[in-house]
Structure formats: C-alpha cells, structure tokens
Amino acid sequence: MTRQPLIIYNTLSRQKELFRPLTEGRVGMYVCGPTVYGDAHLGHARPAITFDLLFRYLLHQGYRVRYVRNITDVGHLEHDADEGEDKIQKKARLEELEPMEVAQLYTNRFEEAMKALNCLPPSIEPRATGHIIEQEQLVSEILRNGYAYESHGSVYFDVEKYAKEHRYGILSGRTLENAKDASRELAGVDEKRNQADFALWKKAQPQHIMRWPSPWSEGFPGWHCECTAMGRKYLGSHFDIHGGGMDLVFPHHECEIAQAVASQGSEMVRYWMHNNMITIEGRKMGKSYNNFITLPQFFTGEHPLLQQAYSPMTIRFFILQAHYRSTVDFSNDALQAAEKGYARLMDAWRKLLRLTEGQRVKGQPVVEMAWVDELRQKLYDAMNDDLNSPIVLQLLFDASRTINLLADRKLGVTPEVAEALKGLFSTFIFDILGLQEDTAQGNKEREQAFASVVDMVLRQRQRAKEQKDWMLSDSIRSELSELGFEVKDTKDGFSWTLNK
Ligand code: ZN
After folding, report:
1. Which of 53, 204, 413, 445 has a CA-to-CA distance to 493 between 20 and 30 Å?
2. Distance 71 CA to ligand 1 centre (A)
3. Which residues contact 109 (CB under 8 A, 6 or more apart)?
4. N-terminal to C-terminal alpha carbon distance within the chain
5. Residue among 306, 424, 314 nearest 371 (CA)
6. What is the per-residue pLDDT for 207?
7. How far is the CA of 6 from the centre of ligand 1 (A)?
8. Which of 116, 444, 119, 433 is nearest to 299 (CA)?
9. How many A from CA of 224 to the centre of ligand 1?
C-alpha cells in the first residue's frame, strides 16, 4: 500500500506537523514506562493505549518500528518528603521483600494488564537498574561540558548556566523563574546552587538499599537520566518520537532535553507527543482524593467507586473514544456507555461475518464498492489527522447502520463488496484500534449456547417420554450421564448439572 501523509501534533513546535522519519521507512519511538512500585492504574492505561495505537498504525503503514518503553525500577520519582525514602525501597521494607522482588512483581502485573488491554509488547523494555553505567556516562559528559556540578557526593544539573546559553523551558513553555517554583525536588535543597537545579546523581543515605558505585559516591541516578541514557543507547543520538503523559512535560521531559543538549550538543528527539490526562469524576487522580483505581480493580469491579467490573476492552474502547490530546473524565456512566458502544460495534462485526454469498436480491438498493472506498478514505484521513480515533469509531458506527440494513436484507451487496467491507472493518477494529473479542463476554456467550443445547436435548427426551418412547428417553439420559450430566426429573420438567 502507498503511505499517506501522517500528521501529528508536536508538543515542541506546538503545532501539527507532517511526520517524516529520520530514516526512510524506519521509526524510532521512546515512551516513558511505569514506575513499578504498585499496580498500574487508569492513568497508566492511557499512554499505553495511545502509543499502542501509534505503534500499530505505523506498523500498519509498513514502517519498521523500534518501540522502546522503559521500566523505572529505581523508585526515585517521588521521595517521601519527610523520610527521603525511595518508593521501591519503602514498599520492600513494608512487604519484607528484596527491592528487585517488588520491582519484578509489579513489572509482571503491569505486563499482565497490558496484555489484557491488548497492547502490543514494545520492541525493547529496558530497566533503569540495568543501565546504571550508561547513566553514569551521561552524567560524566554533562559534567565535562560544564553544565553540572558536584556537591557532597551528589551531582546536580546547573539549570541557570544552561538557561543562559539554551532555551530551558523550550518544551513546557516555563521560564526559569516559574520552573524554580514548580520544582518538587525538596531533597538536597541545601546542596544545590539553585532551586531549579535537578539531581543527575544522588549520594545514597546509609539506610538506602538500592545503590551503585560511581566516581562521585555510592548512590543512584536521578530519574531524568534513565530515559536520556536508554533512549540514546537503543535509538541513537537522534530519534523520531518521544512520548508520554502530559504530566511528564515538566520537569521530566524538559530536563531530558536539557540533558541531551548539555551532553551531546543537540536535541535528541524530533517529535514530542503527549497524551492528556484522565480525571475521575472531575478530579485529578491523587492520593488525597483516594481515587486511584488500579487496572486489576477495574477488571474485577473491586473498588468502592466502581458499580461493576469493566472488561479490558471496555477500558480500551473508553480511552479510544476520546482524542488522545483531550481530557477524559472517568465515571461509571461513561464506562457503561463505552461498554454498550463496544458491544454494538462487535455486534455489527459479527453480523458482517455472517453476510455470506452476497445478498443481492432483486429490486433492493445495493451497497456499492464506491461507498466502501469512500469509507476507507475517511477512516485513513481520520487516522492521518493526529490519530483521531473518536472519528474512526464514529465512522465505524455510521457504517454499522448500513451493516444492520444488510443483515435485515433491506439492502443488497455483492460478495466482492461484502469482502471489501469485512477487510476494512477487520483492519481498523482489530489491527489499528487493537480491539479484540472480549474473552469474558465470549465465554459467557459460549456458556449460554452450551446450556441451550443441553436444554434442547432434554426437551427431546421429555417429548419421547410423552410418546412413551422409553428406549429413546432412557438412552438420552444414560448418554448424558456418561458425559457427566446429572439429570433430574422435576415437577415442571427437568433440571441438570454438569459434574465435571
Ligand atoms: Zn521518561
């Protein structure tokens, strides 16, 4: 197929741009992954699904994509202000586990949730703890170039010096002044020259378990280092796309740009892409609101805010229903609407599968190939306009109405057109949007069908009894019993159980 121009919004230029990879036919893409000290929540599902949509679409367009998503297993993201304790370490202490055991446990659980959401695994999932040397090299380069300083065994990025020569705030639009105010890094306040400076290397306190030797001290790297170091290692010093949630624009990605420029003299990333956030009933997700709902809780319904369980495909559909740069507000109503929408779409797909051998009936208006071609073009246009998944879903819904008319034989179609429509639906629903048949829903339907068949057989047996055909009624009963069914005759007919 010929590739059509893909337009994406670049956070750096603050406008939509034509996507042109640095190397023809290949794309390097880096997405900030989870910090593995707890279960992934709804906020993790959004970047995972957003960049899965991009990954899938680029693959569909015939690109060779190297998709790197890191695992932050040094929990230095947020220190507890009063204790200065690393999150993974704290969790390990509370759960009496080795820190790497905690990281592995939640990595496994994250992968399980991603699989349930039908997110394709990235090409590489590097761990921060496996790349300490690369991070130390990055720190050394920045020190050598004069954009960092050592203080009491820790190393800090000299934001003020950098900002004199380069544009600190180029991504987030912040000035040095409001960057200072926004700096959440409370630790090391007395070691830093300026409030806005951020840690490249931290000397470990005596009680700190996760520590590595370095030229400066036994310690651990600053959080922003890992993505710059691992992005460069696996995608090269210049690569195409860096993505993540909007909450990472500042300070994380702003600091990554500064680190890249300070170490290699140029920016590393061509296109910065950010998904918007999810609010829960109008509020930001936050500890103080007690509204973090983890993905496993969604799948089981076990959270006080949830009225029911929501399947992974309902969650995926819910997220795809909004454009990735718009906010999404979670509520039970919104998820129940998504559940219905998803069911309606899959219903149309199954009806489409059952359209066999053409339904061209004399006198009926016919769905033409031109209609399918036009639908195809509109679907690609929507994807090419900054991954507009809500428009894609809307177009598929509109087309579902035509499928319903076909299923009701109010419209006719030739086998060729029916095949083309099936191919188009399959490409967009499964390959690009990454939806799939809900196994829970599928199992329920299979179980219902199974029960109806057993009921049907037992009704035949009753009829045989009414006609005094004892041989037939006995043989049905004994064959069912051999298969493990226990059949009981009751006042109103029969009941059965399966003893297996
Ligand atoms: Zn990152």
Report:
1. 445
2. 9
3. 39, 40, 296
4. 51
5. 424
6. 78
7. 25
8. 116
9. 6
Q: What distance in angstroms lies between residue 78's CA and the mean position of ligand 1's atoms?
A: 14
Residues 6+ away with beta carbon under 8 Å from 23:
none
The CA distance from 307 to 205, in Å, is 45
* Residue 53, φ and ψ in degrees, nearest 5: -60, -45
Taking the CA atoms of the chain, what radius of gyration do you get in angstroms?
A: 28
pLDDT band at 119; cut points 50, 70, 90: very high
**How far is ligand 1, taken at its centre, from the CA of residue 9, in Å?**
19
What's the 76 CA to ligand 1 centre distance in angstroms?
12
Cα(226) to ligand 1 centroid in Å equals 7
As to burial, measured by CB atoms within 10 angstroms (0-12 exposed, 13-18 middle, 19+ buried), residue 266 is exposed
Reduce the DSSP state of residue 23 to 3 states and report it. strand
CA of 32 to the centre of ligand 1 (A): 4
Average pLDDT over residues 99-120: 94
Phi-psi map region of 301: left, alpha, beta (phi>0 left; psi -120 to 50 alpha): left
Measured distance CA(411)–CA(105) in Å, rounded: 54
71, β-bridge pairs:
127
Instruction: For the beta carbon of residue 310, count every other beta carbon within 10 angstroms.
Output: 23
CA of 223 to the centre of ligand 1 (A): 8
Q: What is the per-residue pLDDT for 82?
A: 39
pLDDT band at 90 (very low <50, low <70, confident <90, very high): confident
